Amino acid sequence: MFKKILKSYDYSIIAVYILLCLFGLVMVYSSSMVRAVQYYEWPADIFYQKQKMNLIFGFIVFLAFAIFPYKAYRNKTFLIIMTGMAVLGLFAVSVIGHTTNNAQSWINVGARKIQPSEFVKLSVIIYLSAVYANKQRYIDNFNKGVFPPIFFLLFVCFLIKIEPDNGTAFITLLIGISIILCSGMSFKSISKLIAICITIGLIFSPFIVMKFDKIFTEGNKGRIVGYLDPFGTYQNEGNQLVNSYLAIGSGGIKGLGLGQSVQKLGYLPEPHTDFIMAIIAEELGVFGVAIVLLGISFLVLRGIYIGIRSRDPFGSMLAIGIASMIGIQSFINLGGVSGLIPITGVTLPFISYGGSSILVLSIAMGILTNVSMFKNYEEKYGNRNNQPQETLRPVQSTIQPKYNIRN
């Protein structure tokens, strides 16, 4: 049986995950060494060494979650503890949080900083997947099946928003929406939910306009101004985006060469975190950008494929939620770097420097690998115990994955 389990693992996911992390480690060193010396007066390899330790610990955690059965996360006691810790972490940030880049999003733990909102994204995926999997028999009942999990989603998004961390709050909300759309609700129920959201949005839109100055900080408004007119505000709000353009344009097809970036020499702020893709484009050109995009795209599409093929609704929503988290965060980061959307301060998955981000992504990839293993094992060897499989009710919505149904 052990050999069958080993054969059921999707080693392509593991390989791409490791390659992206190693590629990111190289680029963190290249993009951060000048800033470490000039800005912080630290050793040139300080961020590289920290990220290396983050990756080592992250890989150990990945292996643990890849082995541990994902179905245990559906336990009610576990869900209560997990959601309780997520909420307490966000409350702790508001009390003892450390402020960086105008956002009070980190908690100092010794020499390390932890960002609770990163872990909340994964908590939302597990919680919504488990709750909606348990509510399949009455998934279209708004009072019992639809609204209770949505209240939790909106509550944690609100707590992240007031840090303020609009980028992470928006990502968390979109992740929740992606799971809701794939939860098994009928097209009629989804349409009704969308209509309710639009109505609420129209009701509160005048309030948002009137209280715009209080809802959005000066930093948020500055990012919007810089996005709308980067060259006109080059000396202030648009500086970061213009330097990103210069980095991307300088790289061209072949790039300037590894370590040869000009923009990292004090021109582009945060070159090893938010804007690491601009440095990759400048140093490695289209080839370097393609490596990152192809790797991330593979993991996203693979996650969606696993979700569609999984016979377990909980595993299906977990896989789709994890794929959505990676895809949405990547789009928002790349959109900000390229000027497609306003800058949000969101890091690029697997590539940017960050301990909390790498740890959460490693846990997520471990869970996805475990879901894939169970799916492959059932497809290859069947349910040897002849136990009935829990299934999702037939769904009319075209966005809903097609689940196999067994009695």
TrEMBL record:
Its main location: membrane. It catalyses: [GlcNAc-(1->4)-Mur2Ac(oyl-L-Ala-gamma-D-Glu-L-Lys-D-Ala-D-Ala)](n)-di-trans,octa-cis-undecaprenyl diphosphate + beta-D-GlcNAc-(1->4)-Mur2Ac(oyl-L-Ala-gamma-D-Glu-L-Lys-D-Ala-D-Ala)-di-trans,octa-cis-undecaprenyl diphosphate = [GlcNAc-(1->4)-Mur2Ac(oyl-L-Ala-gamma-D-Glu-L-Lys-D-Ala-D-Ala)](n+1)-di-trans,octa-cis-undecaprenyl diphosphate + di-trans,octa-cis-undecaprenyl diphosphate + H(+). Its EC number is 2.4.99.28. Pfam families: FTSW_RODA_SPOVE. It is found in: Membrane. Belongs to the SEDS family. FtsW subfamily. This is Probable peptidoglycan glycosyltransferase FtsW.
